[in-house]
Amino acid sequence: MYKTVTLILFTFFCALSLPAWSQSKSTNPSTFPEGENTSKVVKAYPNPATTKIYFEIQRNNDKVYEIIVYNFLGKKVDHLKNLANRAQLPLDNYYSGLYIFQLREKDGTLVESGKFNVVK
Question: CA 68: distance to chain centroid?
């Protein structure tokens, strides 16, 4: 008896909250308030990469960045410093697999992280 009543009440409250879910914020980046824009700051290409990968800063704002590359186990593999617009990373010493990169400001503040795949 209690299980049936609980199930009915649960269904009723879910039905009441459904209109609120449909009126939630849009995921269109142009509707976000300033500071919540979801566009990427850095673009890594080609992905997957074989011999080299390029990192291109999309929004520079006259800042100097650095990119730190980690393997999938979390070990630091590379560190590119003083990036302004574009950097090239040769993959000669990289094994096939997934790598994580972090874009940081010169003071160490994390701006963005991403991943790329090396295929050899």
Answer: 14
Write the pLDDT tens digit of every residue in 59-72: 767 888 999 999 99
Cα–Cα distances in Å, from 84 out to 26, 59, 80, 103? 32, 10, 11, 12
Instruction: Write out the two tokens for 81.
Output: 């410093």
One-letter amino acid of 35: G
Q: Is 67 helix (H, G, I), strand (E, B) or coil?
A: strand
How far from 116 is each of 22, 48, 66, CA to CA, in Å? 35, 6, 17
- What are the structure tokens assigned to 67, written together? 């990119």
Contact 100, 69 (CB under 8 A): yes
Spans of the chain below 70 pLDDT: 1-38, 60
